[in-house]
Each structure stands twice: as C-alpha cells, then as structure tokens.
Amino acid sequence: MHSIPYTSATELLAQFRAGTLDPVAVLETLIETAQAQQATVNSAASLQLEQARTMARESRRRYAEGTARPLEGVPVIVKEETAVKGWPRPLASLVFKDRVATENHPIVDKLLEAGAIPYFQATNPEFCVLGHTWSKMYGVTRNPWALDYSCGGSSGGSGAALAAGVAPLATGSDMAGSIRLPSSLCGVYGYKPPFGRLACASGDEYLVQAVEGPMTRTFDDLVLMQNVVAGPHPSSFTTLPYTPLPTSYGDLKGMRIAYCPAFGNPTLADDIHRNLLRALDGLRRAGAIVEEVELNWDLAEINQVLLDGLRAVFVDEFMGDIGEDDAAKLCSYTEVLREQGKSDAVSIIPSAVLGRQLHRDMHDKVWGKGYQAFICASMLTTALQADQDPVAEPIIEAHGHQYDAYLGWCLTPPFNLLNRYPVLAAPTGLSDLGVPTGMQIVANAFDDETVFRVAASHAKAGSSKLFVEQFPPASQPALAAVA
To answer: Which protein family is it in (predicted)?
Structure first.
C-alpha cells in the first residue's frame, strides 16, 4: 500500500469504511505534506484548515454512525479560480488581491454534498490565461518531477499538488488545454468534459470553450470524481441530465481507434512520440484496432481563432475593470492582453466557423470512417521552463525546433473549439528530461463513456503504471521524505 499522501481516494474510502484509517488523521498527514511542498513546488495559493478540520471530524462521526456519503472524508484540491464561498479569489492578480468568493461554484457544491473536504487552494496564473503557472501574486509553481520545468497551466497548481501528494482529487478548468496540459506534464489524469456535462458558474453560460473538470492521480479516482461532480445544479440552465459512468470496463476487442500524433506538425519531440506509440501498443494488446489517420491542421490559426473568441466573450470585458493605475500590477502576459483589447476588436463568430470545419474534417476522416475514438499527444515538447515568459521570450528553442512560446507548443486548443467533444488526458511515460508526457483520448460529441473505456484499458495495459509506482518523484528527496 502507498503512503497516505499517495493513497488514492478509492482506497481511502475503502479504509475509512473498514475503520483502518481515520479521516482526521489522514487530513493532518496531508496538511504536513502540503506545508512541506511549498518550499519546493509552491502549489498552494492558500490552505483553508479550520473548516477542513471541522469537516474531518464530521466525517469521522458519519463513518461511526453509518451515514457516510460517496466522498466522505476525502481531502480535495480546489483551483483558486474555482469559487469557494469565503475563500480568497483574486485570480492570482494583485489588482484583485482582496476579492473573496461570495458563493460556491457548482462543482464545489457537488463535492461538499458528497462529503469531500476541500482544504488546499491551488495556484493558477493571473486570470488563467497562461499555459504555465506563475504570477506576481503566487510566484512560480514548479513541476514535482523536475523542479526547473513547467507544471503546465492554467490548472498547474492542481496538477502539481496532485503529484506532490497533498490530496488525491483536484478541480481544474479548461479553456485552451488548462486541464489537459498540467495533467500530462504532471503525470496525472484529467478530464475535459463536453460543455453541458458539468454545471458552469452563473454568468459563464456563453463561454462554451471553457469547462470545469476533475483531475486525479488514478483512473479509478477520475471515474469516481466525475460521477460526483457531473449533472444538473440548481444555478445552471445549460447542464444536461447525467447517467453515471461505469466503474469497470471490458477490453477493447474490435474497437477502431484513429490516431494522429500531432495533426501533421513535424516538431513533435521524439520522446513524446515514443511514449505515445508505446501507449497505442497497449491498446492494441487490449484488442483495439489502432490506425493512423492524416489530419493537417494549422495550429497557429486554431490558436489565434480560439484566443480571439475567448477575448470576445471573457478576457476583454474582464480587462475593462482594470484602470491605468493598476496596470503596473499585472503580469507581463496579462498586460499584453489588456493592450490588445484596447487596439483591436475580436468576435466569437470565427471560433464557431472554424469549429464546424474541424468537425467536418473529423467526420470525413475519423467518425465517418467507423472509428470510435481518436488519440493524439497533448503537447509538442516538455522543454518548458517553470517561469517561461512568452512576452520576454516569445520563441522556445528545443531539440532542433522553434515554438511560439504562448500556445505554439500545445496540441489541446482544437478541442476547445470542438467543445462538445469529451477529451481525457492520460499519462504515457517520462520524457528524456524526466518530465511526464501525456496523450489526449477523444470521442465524438457527448460520447463520454468511450473515452473512459479507452482510458481504462490504457491504465490496465501498464504504460502509465510507472506513475503509480514512482510517486513520490524519486528525484525530489524533500518530497520523498515527507511521504
């Protein structure tokens, strides 16, 4: 059995029910881990301990009385952007450093109703508009596997905290890859559900490129958490009815799976490609018919159209609240967005048009050809410094290639335009730098169960087993000592 910081939620619940672990003692152990990681990984925006300790005592009582709920006593990481009533919510910005959430996000209500214990508030970049996790407010959040390198973003604090052992479950949000990038770079599982599967926050009904979703260290925990947080909520009028996902899956015998490693982009790093092909071999052993298809997508165009759409419905309006006196408090990457908003107009319409074109291409080459799932890498390279500043250094040079430093290394944005597609990020191995790599498992609109079925076989195949075996990262003695 793993040490407490690396015990899954599924196993914690089993031991809580058996009386072999106590929710109060588990929380205290994880608090020690959370405090210790701050000196190296720096993934905590805040620790909310008083309420959590009260909730842990309540969970202990419920287990004794036989009234435990589905996630009773399980500690949870909550991304700072995700509102928890009474918790700070500055969106990592010094401009809004005194802001406090006045109500819960629906995903938080669902977790609380299930008996989970939110206690760790994870860092994100300012306004969640960067693929790394650093800000003037919180400093640099680092990858527990290799501290010099990026943990991804914008849910990088959640991914790093999971990998550092502070809790088995975390919330994330994704509007350009913000769940899938940190999940892949931190060696954990993450799910970008189709828009409408989870209730969005009030006011976000038209921000269809962005969704909340679960992040976990194990596949079984991803199913567990998704089944708790999905489905209707009283504050949302956009959420679909929900049928819980199965908790066990058979093999993939006869399933046809298409893959295209990087949408035709020639700069995919060899180590990421190697790990992806190994994962695909595991799916073949599970009975799947896995075949390569040709998709030649212009990633630069996709990225720009997505960013323009996000600016049209979210960023520009938000930046309008920031006066000239506060501009100096902004991070470099948000100041650029603010200046762009003053000089040029953008529209959501091109996002809809390009999304339709991408779906037609997927239909012509994937869904219409009888494939049930599609797989690609999550990013082109892992050679990403933790404090990478795309304004100061707009070009990344790695393994003989150049990448636009803002989104040019990401393979996630197409599926924010295709925002009704479910996409699950799963770990595939370690890069030559010692940073985890990952893949995206995709299905057609609202076909959630297919991506979980494929991911279940991937987890069983062993190509991601090293992450379970190596937590905590052996290269970080300070973290290993905590566990």
So the answer is: Belongs to the amidase family.
Listed range (107-111, 133-137, 209-213, 309-313) with the worst mean pLDDT:
309-313
Residue 323 lies in a domain: no
Question: Which structure tokens are listed for 397?
Answer: 């040079």
Active site residue 351: no
- Say what the pLDDT of residue 344 is: 81
Burial code (b: 16+ CB inside 10 Å, e: under 16) for 355-392 equals: beebbeebeebbbeeebbbbbbbbbbbbbbbbebebee
Is 405 a domain residue?
yes
> Could you tell me which of 417, 392, 419 has the C-alpha nearest to residue 406?
392
Whether the CB-CB separation of 194 and 167 falls below 8 Å is answered with no
In a 3-state reduction of DSSP, which class is residue 139?
A: strand
Q: CB neighbours of 31 closer than 8 A, spacing ≥ 6? A: 47, 49, 119
| 166 and 5 Cβ atoms separated by less than 8 Å | yes
Task: Check if 154 is active-site.
Answer: yes
Domain that holds residue 190: 4-298+352-482
326 is a domain residue: no
- C-alpha gyration radius of the chain: 21
Residue 302 has pLDDT above 60, yes or no: yes
* Given the residues 178, 184, 378, 464, the one annotated as active site: 178
User: What is the C-alpha to C-alpha distance for residues 464 and 383, in angstroms, rounded to an integer?
Assistant: 20
Active-site annotation holds for 79 = yes
Q: Is the pTM of the predicted complex or chain greater than 0.90?
A: yes
Establish if 399 belongs to a structural domain. yes
